[in-house]
């Protein structure tokens, strides 16, 4: 029984005047004037702090403060604003809200796992309006992604190869590193089982290839989390381009590098599978390969640290999730292209688990496209080390 009812029953049994008791209770539960004033003052302070945040507060930020909140310097933001403005041209959505406010609002939402209500309160934008702005800007950034995530030309490939060779102390002709990353999402309304991955949460897979600077040179977004890395790779346009003998995107001597989840191919070098009895030369190759392959894990880590919304997309539509991921990949490269490469203190490695190997998928790829050339190429690299 509720303690208050017990007390009232006790009072009734003793024949006390209930009106008197009621007054006593009212006095006890009424907040003290000092506490009431303090609560009121805190509410007023919160309102004052958020009032005209875009108009008055942001302009007072130092360069470091602006970069901390919006992941780029003011100069880079102005460049981004021009790019977005030129792409949109006729922005008929909420014309009373300036484009720079919409863009800052969207970047804030990407950068911090805060609710639309909280961010809308900060920017003085109603929640319903905020959803529309966010979707519009995100769609624009995603449309711009192909301009900023592009396969490198011959000169760019040569630079990456040289730097990868220096970092690995001998592995030549590496153009980029490939891996997959799980972006957690809310359980989808349809096909929930397909998106439930081996790590026991629902996710969208982002397959990425990056160069020596952790800049994405290819992304494949949207496969459900249950799918293995090798199957995702098989479904990607990158796989088709790597296996196109008439118009190859890499020379025979060039290659990407991946972990054991990927099939060994002429243009994709992977580690020797460790059976506990590897010779020293193979171990040396594996260690040096791993030292440069970790750059893709760093790229994923930087992406999630900068844009914390990717740590959990609270959306039921995986299609819009794909758009958000594409927008962040565009921003990731855009920031690097403007000379902003930052070291974060947080742990960068986003894929600490051992890769899951789909032997059937690997064998199918290797049987179809041949394995002997790839084996001979990898053995030649080992001999050179």
Automatic annotation (TrEMBL):
<dbReference type="GO" id="GO:0046872">
    <property type="term" value="F:metal ion binding"/>
</dbReference>
<keyword id="KW-0378">Hydrolase</keyword>
<dbReference type="GO" id="GO:0005634">
    <property type="term" value="C:nucleus"/>
</dbReference>
<keyword id="KW-0479">Metal-binding</keyword>
<keyword id="KW-0540">Nuclease</keyword>
<feature type="domain" description="DDE Tnp4">
    <location>
        <begin position="178"/>
        <end position="333"/>
    </location>
</feature>
<protein>
    <submittedName>
        <fullName>Protein ANTAGONIST OF LIKE HETEROCHROMATIN PROTEIN 1-like</fullName>
    </submittedName>
</protein>
<dbReference type="GO" id="GO:0004518">
    <property type="term" value="F:nuclease activity"/>
</dbReference>
<dbReference type="InterPro" id="IPR045249">
    <property type="entry name" value="HARBI1-like"/>
</dbReference>
<dbReference type="InterPro" id="IPR027806">
    <property type="entry name" value="HARBI1_dom"/>
</dbReference>
<comment type="similarity">
    <text>Belongs to the HARBI1 family.</text>
</comment>
<dbReference type="GO" id="GO:0016787">
    <property type="term" value="F:hydrolase activity"/>
</dbReference>
<keyword id="KW-0539">Nucleus</keyword>
<dbReference type="Pfam" id="PF13359">
    <property type="entry name" value="DDE_Tnp_4"/>
</dbReference>
């Amino acid at each position: 029984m509720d303690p208050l009812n017990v007390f009232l029953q006790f009072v009734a049994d003793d024949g006390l005047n209930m009106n008197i008791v009621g007054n006593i209770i009212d006095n006890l539960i009424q907040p003290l004037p000092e506490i009431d004033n303090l609560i009121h003052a805190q509410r007023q302070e919160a309102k004052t702090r958020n009032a005209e945040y875009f108009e008055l507060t942001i302009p007072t930020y130092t360069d470091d403060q602006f970069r901390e909140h919006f992941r780029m310097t003011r100069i880079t933001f102005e460049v981004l604003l021009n790019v977005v403005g030129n792409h949109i041209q006729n922005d008929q959505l909420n014309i009373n809200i300036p484009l720079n406010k919409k863009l800052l609002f969207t970047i804030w939402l990407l950068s911090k796992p805060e609710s639309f209500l909280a961010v809308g309160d900060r920017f003085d934008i109603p929640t319903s309006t905020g959803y529309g702005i966010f979707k519009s800007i995100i769609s624009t950034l995603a449309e711009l992604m192909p301009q900023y995530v592009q396969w490198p030309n011959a000169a760019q490939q040569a630079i990456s190869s040289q730097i990868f060779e220096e970092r690995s102390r001998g592995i030549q002709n590496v153009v980029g590193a490939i891996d997959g990353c799980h972006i957690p999402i809310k359980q989808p309304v349809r096909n929930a089982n397909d998106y439930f991955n081996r790590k026991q949460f629902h996710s969208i897979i982002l397959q990425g290839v990056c160069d020596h600077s952790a800049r994405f040179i290819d992304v494949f977004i949207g496969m459900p989390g249950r799918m293995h890395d090798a199957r995702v790779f098989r479904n990607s346009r990158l796989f088709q381009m790597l296996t196109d003998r008439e118009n190859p995107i890499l020379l025979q001597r060039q290659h990407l590098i991946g972990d054991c989840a990927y099939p060994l191919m002429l243009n994709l070098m992977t580690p020797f599978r460790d059976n506990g009895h590897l010779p020293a030369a193979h171990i040396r190759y594996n260690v040096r390969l791993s030292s440069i392959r970790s750059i893709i894990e760093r790229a994923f880590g930087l992406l999630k640290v900068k844009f914390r919304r990717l740590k959990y997309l609270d959306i039921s539509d995986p299609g819009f999730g794909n758009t958000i991921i594409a927008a962040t990949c565009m921003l990731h490269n855009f920031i690097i292209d403007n000379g902003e490469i930052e070291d974060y203190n947080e742990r960068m490695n986003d894929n600490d688990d051992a890769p899951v190997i789909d032997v059937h998928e690997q064998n199918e790829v290797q049987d179809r496209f041949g394995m002997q050339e790839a084996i001979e190429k990898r053995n030649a690299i080992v001999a050179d080390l």
